[in-house]
């Protein structure tokens, strides 16, 4: 990839990372985001960086070369979760953007042992999220977490990381932010209904199938 194109991708990462903060999907210095540069490289937010105030200086380029195991990331330390991003890019060649963060309601669900999310409550969540899956707790930044998240990302594009947060994968920065925003709205709707003792109506499977067919038109 040319240096000019790299500049464009970095600018896009800054724009959508800041948007994630503006949408309330990020708090403090939580969260990390990455974009694929090409088959062998990706860029990711630096360790300790704030998505709210992200700049070009807070972006690190990392290698996807299996021989380097992604460790060659330059002088600036990448997010401690760079291994998780790297493993996903290795296993999902169709993925070009990853967002890992801790929005309030979605994280509450991820930390709950009894709250589950049903996509078939809203057409939008059916359209924007292919599948939601839970990932058992592993320490942040660990190889164990990276490999488990990557394995489960094969089937699900949005993951609830137990006692940790959420992660979304997609083909673009715009898509992945939209997925996490959709997830957060669905979680907020679910939790608000539970607290008011309201029962949410789930769309029947037949109607869901027909809607999915309409999406293909």
Sum up the structure in keywords.
7 strands; seven-stranded mixed β-sheet; alpha+beta; 217 residues
Break the fold down into its secondary structure elements and pairings.
Elements: H1 3-22, E1 32-38, E2 41-45, E3 59-63, H2 82-91, E4 97-101, H3 104-111, H4 123-128, E5 132-135, H5 143-153, E6 158-161, E7 165-170, H6 173-195, H7 205-215
Parallel strand pairs: 5-6
Antiparallel strand pairs: 1-2, 1-4, 2-3, 4-7, 6-7
Helix pairs in contact: 1-6, 2-5, 3-6
The biggest sheet, with number of strands, parallel, antiparallel or mixed sense and barrel status, is: 7 strands, mixed
Extract low-pLDDT stretches: none
User: Could you say which overall geometry the principal axes of the C-alpha atoms support?
Assistant: globular
With strands numbered from the N-terminus, the spatial order across the biggest sheet is 3-2-1-4-7-6-5
> Helix count, per DSSP?
7
What share of residues are in beta strands? 15-25%
Report the count of strand segments. 7
Structural class: alpha+beta
Output mean pLDDT: 93
Helix content: 40-55%
Run of helices and strands: HEEEHEHHEHEEHH
The gyration radius over C-alpha positions equals 17 Å
Q: Could you tell me how far the N terminus lies from the C terminus, measured between alpha carbons in angstroms?
A: 35 Å
């Amino acid at each position: 990839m040319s240096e000019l194109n790299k500049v464009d991708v970095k600018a896009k990462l800054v724009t959508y990372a800041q948007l994630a903060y503006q949408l309330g999907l990020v708090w403090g210095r939580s969260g990390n985001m990455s974009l694929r540069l090409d088959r062998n490289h990706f860029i990711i937010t630096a360790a300790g960086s704030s998505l709210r105030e992200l700049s070009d200086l807070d972006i690190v380029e990392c290698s996807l070369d299996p021989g380097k195991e992604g460790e060659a990331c330059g002088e600036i330390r990448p997010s401690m979760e760079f291994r998780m991003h790297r493993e996903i890019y290795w296993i999902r060649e169709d993925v070009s953007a990853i967002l890992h963060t801790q929005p309030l309601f979605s994280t509450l669900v991820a930390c709950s042992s009894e709250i589950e999310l049903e996509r078939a409550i809203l057409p939008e969540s059916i359209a924007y999220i292919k599948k939601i899956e839970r990932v058992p707790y592993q320490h942040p930044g660990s190889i164990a977490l990276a490999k488990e998240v990557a394995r489960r990302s094969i089937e699900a594009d949005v993951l609830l990381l137990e006692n940790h947060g959420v992660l979304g994968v997609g083909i673009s920065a715009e898509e992945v932010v939209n997925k996490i925003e959709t997830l957060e709205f669905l979680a907020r709707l679910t939790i608000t209904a539970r607290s008011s003792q309201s029962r949410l109506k789930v769309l029947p499977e037949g109607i869901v199938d027909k809607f999915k067919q309409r999406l293909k038109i």
